Amino acid sequence: xxxxxxTPSAEFQTAQEAIAxxxxxxxxLGMKPGLQxxxxxxxxxxxxxxxxxFIHVAxxxxxxxxxxxxxxxxxxxxxxxxxxxxxxxxxYTNRIQVNGADIPDDVLLRLVNEMKPIVDEIAETEVGPPTxxxxxxxxxxxxxGKVAYPDYxxxxxxxGGRLDSTNIVNPVVTIITNVGHxxxxxxxxxxxxxxxxxxxxxxxxxxxxxxxxxxEVWSVIDQTAKAKKxxxxxxxxxxxxxxxxxxxxxQTFDFSGPFRNINGVPITLNGEHQLxxxxxxxxxxxxxxxxxxxxxxxxxxxxGLKETRWPGRLEMVSREPRILLDGAHNPxxxxxxxxxxxxxxxxxxxxxxxxxxxxxxxxxxxxxILPLVDTLIITEPDFHKxxxxxxxxxxxxxxxxxxxxxxxxxxxxxxxxxxxxLTSRTEQDDLAVVSGTLYLIxxxxxxITYQTDxxxxx
Length: 458
What we know:
By secondary structure, the chain is of the alpha/beta class. Helices cover 43% and strands 18% of the residues. It holds the Pfam family Mur_ligase_M. Belongs to the folylpolyglutamate synthase family.
């Protein structure tokens, strides 16, 4: 490490410089689906990905929570666990962790300096320069495969699956949580096309766990699994769960699976959707037990599930007034949030602040939210692809007119001022919710928790 700092040829002198170089590529290069650049990177780095056991997770919603459950349980069982997730909520290094600890700055600096000449070399070829997300993916693989050597890596896709840079790995197990209306401008304009893209992470002979429904979308996953001779475990088919108790911050369910049944499984995350995510995680752990001799005692399973935290998803960040953060940003996420607001939380009035990216299905999202709110404050995330607040307000007014419903709509483009308005309107028995893109959630969360701005991003 010291040697690299002293070497004049080292491109970056600090971790902050290295991160600025990586993040700056998002504006310049955007996203370029395809695996050629990743294949070249891995080859030139000596294939560190081949030393690791990956649990590859794709899906429209629920990926992050499922990853959090798996990481927490495997750690409770005594395993070292690497995680790669996106987008990050507070700072760049959050996305690459071992046992919940971010990649250290000195390690990041050393690895990026090692990678930089290779990235420059690839940029000169016909495949073009590697993107921000590709470099981040390669950095995670280098950290796990050359420095930390965790027992398992919980590996979340960035976008889609088939051409996502994370698809460079050959996992021990694959998860597709669900398929919904998101990133359709990139992945395809029907749910079947989105499902086909996500099914692209299924590998020959590698077991697949899914909670995908409805049938026509599930059948895309099923057909791909059959073609790859990969055993498919589907919620409602090979495994199931029954909700036993549901209270605020405490739920239990009975799990039934092909290898055994487990009763009274506890979680502390809220919402019925979290039972589904936890059941998918339990089925995955059952496959690891059955086929890879992973030791998961019930005591550790229960402890890991109960201790799972997932920031920015139904997260109560303030008690006075009550402010709930939830990164729902597509119609399915909004439906899940609406269901939780009706079944889990009590309030006199509901005040909601929303900021979206311009590429999202705003109408589908608002259809679920508008019937519940008393106040809707529309703002804009501090991000280059932000959705226009006035346009979003226009869609909301049209929908309210169809619903024959009156809601107080406030347009405030500055999210900090919008947050002040939200806070001032929320009385003791009311509930405030901040929802929409995680770029907004990360800013609001950092501001409420630490009174600082976040370094959010893909």
